[in-house]
Write a structure and sequence with these properties.
This protein has 14 helices and 10 strands. The longest helix has 15 residues. An 8-stranded parallel β-sheet has the order 3-4-5-6-7-8-9-10, with helices on one face. A two-stranded antiparallel ribbon has the order 1-2. With 327 residues, the protein is an alpha/beta fold. A hairpin with a 6-residue loop joins β1 and β2. The protein has one domain: TIM Barrel, CATH 3.20.20. It comes from Gracilibacillus xinjiangensis. It is an enzyme of class 1 (oxidoreductase). One of its GO terms (molecular function) is oxidoreductase activity.
Length: 327
């Protein structure tokens, strides 16, 4: 495992880490035993960072992480998120009382004394403009309840606005071969301000695995079914904002990335890791096999300069115009 400096924090985190939305819920059927085995396999391979949120399975993914990391609290970092368990548009959700409650509930579920990183979970831009929530987080940091804080954002504009606060240590952004906008507009500022970047939705909700056909049917409780067109939350969180059938079509146009890299999954993750601005990429998983497949991305061959240019042109000419929602 290779480790990267996580922005201005004192943490060095595994360049390939894992998100835990899928094992918490909203990705179809889950199996706790398989999830715990997957977490154990990741840690055995040197993964020392996991991302979660209080709303993933109503706290279930946090509870699974508590079990998996018992006795390893000083070796494994956990990032969680808050705000979406309430009304994200209500300023009261970001009050000192509310945020303290979110933090303490996460601490209880994670069975920890301090949160390594807490992130505001895709708040409306007006909340970021107001800025009061950052003052609240500063106070909680001073109290020792959190080590660092950051923001999970939907758009480049939200990321730039968040970084105007000097104590924002990390941003979590949607970044993959289908979503390249941050490269030019966000990453240079993040590097200048020494802000860590976590790349989420790295496989475009599975599109970049190359495994789907256009007639694939997802389970009822899978967000790739109930949010495929943004019916439940931001459309960009599902298939990176692409209509599913168009995404499948586009993925087939770049199946060449798998050549010499095992498969498209590993190639798509390796492409993200080719960007120095990235602190860690955080794919999800539901099985041990998926964990192992994702881990294999670390050792596959790098992309050549010509291949990187081809993928830039592909995004600009074929993908960009089809992405829906603000980003």
């Amino acid at each position: 495992m290779k480790y990267r400096q996580f922005g201005k924090t004192e943490m060095k985190i595994s360049e390939l880490s894992f998100g835990t939305w899928a094992i918490g819920g909203a990705w179809g059927q889950t199996n706790d035993k398989e999830a715990l085995n997957g977490l154990a396999r990741a840690m055995d391979a040197g993964v020392n960072f996991f991302d979660t949120a209080d709303v993933y399975g109503d706290g279930h993914s946090e509870e699974l992480l508590a079990k998996a990391t018992k006795g390893k609290e000083n070796q494994v970092y956990i990032a969680t998120k808050f705000c979406r368990a309430g009304d994200i548009h209500d300023p009261e959700t970001y009050s000192e009382k509310s945020v303290t409650n979110y933090v303490e509930n996460s601490l209880k579920r994670l069975e920890r004394d301090q949160l390594d990183l807490i992130q505001i979970h895709c708040p409306p831009i007006e909340i970021l403009r107001d800025g009061h929530v950052f003052e609240v987080l500063d106070k909680l940091q001073q109290q020792g309840k959190i080590r660092h804080y950051g923001v999970s954002v939907e758009t480049v504009e939200e990321g730039l606005l968040s970084m105007e606060n000097p104590n924002v240590a990390a941003l979590q952004v949607i970044f993959n071969i289908f979503r390249q906008k941050p490269i030019k507009e966000l990453f240079p500022i993040a590097q200048e301000k020494n802000v860590g970047i976590l790349a989420r939705v790295p496989l475009a909700s599975g599109l970049l695995t190359g495994k789907f056909s256009t007639n694939h049917q997802f389970e009822q409780d899978d967000h790739r079914n109930f949010n495929k067109d943004g019916e439940a939350f931001n459309v960009g969180e599902t298939f990176a904002g692409l209509p599913f059938k168009k995404g499948v079509e586009l993925s087939k146009k770049i199946d060449w990335i798998a050549e010499g890299r095992g498969n498209m999954t590993r190639a798509a993750l390796k492409w993200i890791l080719s960007h120095d601005s990235i602190s860690s990429v955080i794919p999800g998983f539901k099985t041990v096999k998926q964990v192992e497949d994702n881990l294999a991305a670390i050792d596959v061959k790098e992309f050549s300069a010509n291949e990187l240019e081809d993928l830039r042109s592909f995004y600009k000419n074929d993908v960009h115009k089809h992405i829906r929602g603000p980003y």
